[in-house]
Write a structure and sequence with these properties.
There is one protein chain. Helices cover about 15% and strands about 40% of the residues. The chain is mainly β. It has 2 domains: about 210 residues, Jelly Rolls, CATH 2.60.120; about 80 residues, Jelly Rolls, CATH 2.60.120. Strands 1-2-5-12-7-10 form a 6-stranded antiparallel β-sheet, with no helix packed on it. Strand 14 and strand 15 form a beta hairpin. The longest helix is centred in the middle third of the chain and has 9 residues. The protein is globular and about 65 Å long. Keywords: Isomerase, Metal-binding, Zinc. This is Phosphohexomutase. GO terms for molecular function: isomerase activity.
Length: about 325
Amino acid sequence: MKFYPLQFKPILKERIWGGEKLKTVLRKPITSKITGESWELSTVEGDVSVVANGEWKGKLLTSLIDDFPNEILGTKVHNRFGNQFPLLFKYLDAREDLSIQVHPNDELARKRHNSFGKTEMWYVMQADVDAKIIVGFKEKSNPAEYLENLKNKTLLALLDDVKVNAGDVFFLETGTVHAIGAGLVVAEIQQTSDITYRIYDFDRVDVQGKTRELHVDLALEAINYNKIETKKEYTKNLNQSNEVVDCPYFTTNFIPLDGEISISKSGETFTVYMCMEGSFEIEDNNSKTQYVKGDTVLLPGAMNLFGLNGKASILEIYIS
């Protein structure tokens, strides 16, 4: 059986805060003016990715994993997670501010939702002038102070807002109160989970005039009230994998590619490449496939030797 780089049909999500940059910046086939998310690689129930290329075109990712668990996931990942694909990959377009929210850790998510928690990271692909994000508290807080400010609609006074630029990376451990601000296109890598506790939504209403559900009580126990450092500094050595995030759930490297490099893998984990800028080819067994900005590609664990060639900024993600 010859395994090959897999691409998937984007799963497009309308959001009250979404826009059109997923089409204008990343070439996604959106038809709505409020498309907020493109799920690139997912096994979330009801939103399972479908292969878009090659011999397995039209096949569900979950079915492929069931047929070839070690070969798709990698031996070590399969041993740890069984037939579950443990990560979710997205692109987001925030025309407006997202709600202020928080995600539970593994223990709380398992107890309440029979789900993974939601540790995640953001890579800023495009940022309008003065675009910001909210990440954690300015100073150490506590539940009573948080609830009082939430009640008085002064929560923003407690939270840390950070101006961002293209290329910035933020790592959000579970419990970090956060929000992506207006004017940003972001690549998001996270645990496979769709559990979000919405804390505050700026009193917005949808087209029917309804506010979105808040989860204040659920969030109370999930929040980390400490001041947290979320921004990740990283090197950008040419034609190398520069470590950006290394956590129990995933490792993400940044590859500034200009030319050709050879990659050798152990077979223990799948690898995902997300193209942040430019274009590149993956060469394997004399076959070449080109990828451009906004593309996401899954290399099965069974693909041990291959090459990258081109001029591009690439995120490389796997599980250590």
